[in-house]
Structure formats: C-alpha cells, structure tokens
Amino acid sequence: MCVRYRSLGLRILFATEGITIHPIARRPIQLSWSEIDFVNAIPAAEQIDGAWRFKDLRMAPGWDILRDHDRFVLDIVVHDRHAIQPRFRWYPVRIVPLWTADDRPHTRKGTFELPIRVGCLDTKPTDLLELIARRCRFEQLTHSD
User: Fold this and answer.
1) Tell me: the pLDDT tens digits for 75-104?
2) With the C-alpha atoms ordered 132, 58, 122, 111, is the resulting torsion angle positive or negative?
C-alpha cells in the first residue's frame, strides 16, 4: 500500500519502504522507515477500536480541524539529522535539532515538518495514519513556539 500526496511543486510518496519527497525540478529525497524514530501528527493521532484517527480536540461543538482547515502537519523525527541533512540541501526544509526535556538540543536526533493538505492526498488522511503506524510509532512532541 502507498499513499500519494500531490500539491503545486511537491509530491510525496508514503510507501512500505519509506517516504520519498519529490520537490519540483530537484532529485527525490528518500527516507527509509529505519531512519525515522517517530512521527508526531498535529492534531495528535490516537488509536480507537484498532483504527488510527486524529484526536478530537473538542475546541468547539461541531469544529473539525480537517474539515474546517483542510490540513494537518506531520513532524518527522529522524535518528541522525547529520546523515540526512545533505539530502535536503536544495529543499526548503531545515532539519532542526530535537530538543530534550532538559532544554538542550539532542546531539543526533532532528525533526522537520511536512504540512499536508487533505485535498491533495489520493486517499483519506486516516489511511495515511494507518500506513505510518504500521512502519513506525506515533509520539507527541511539545512545542513552545
């Protein structure tokens, strides 16, 4: 199974081998699942009755982040940002250090964001969550921005 994401100037393939990012007019960037430590979905992903879903934030009655805003974010946390950074040289995404609980940058781990528009996926967002959950784990990051 694979999930395709297509937007203006960018294609992303989520497959059993890993994630392949295809920036326009540049070489594809491939990340295997073994290079990824975990994925943080915003809003948070949770497993309900054996199926992965986005957490209901209960911010307002009837409010739905996917329906109302048509987007979500995947923070990809990698084991070794130094080994992966050269692949992202011409891609407008920076892999930043993952900060630890004691407010210090981790020496090796890093993170980068993949903003996803629901309408640009070739399937339901929950299918993408299911594929990711089979290959790596979901964790929650705390942001202070």
Assistant:
1) 999 999 999 999 888 777 788 998 888 888
2) negative
**Whole-number CA gyration radius for the chain:** 15
Phi, psi of 126 (to 5 degrees): -65, -30
Task: Give Cβ neighbours of residue 46 (< 8 Å, ≥ 6 apart).
Answer: 52, 53, 54, 55
**How far apart are the C-alpha atoms of 117 and 12, rounded to whole Å?**
12
Three-class SS of residue 76?
A: strand
Cβ neighbourhood burial of 5 (10 Å; 0-12, 13-18, 19+): buried
Strand pairing category for 36-42 and 137-138: parallel
125 preceded by a cis bond (ω within 30 of 0): no
Q: Could you tell me the pTM of the whole model? A: 0.83
Model pLDDT for residues 9-49, shown as the tens digit of each residue = 889 999 999 999 998 888 899 999 999 999 998 887 778 78
Largest Cα span, the chain = 45
Nearest CA to 128 out of 140, 139, 116 is that of 116
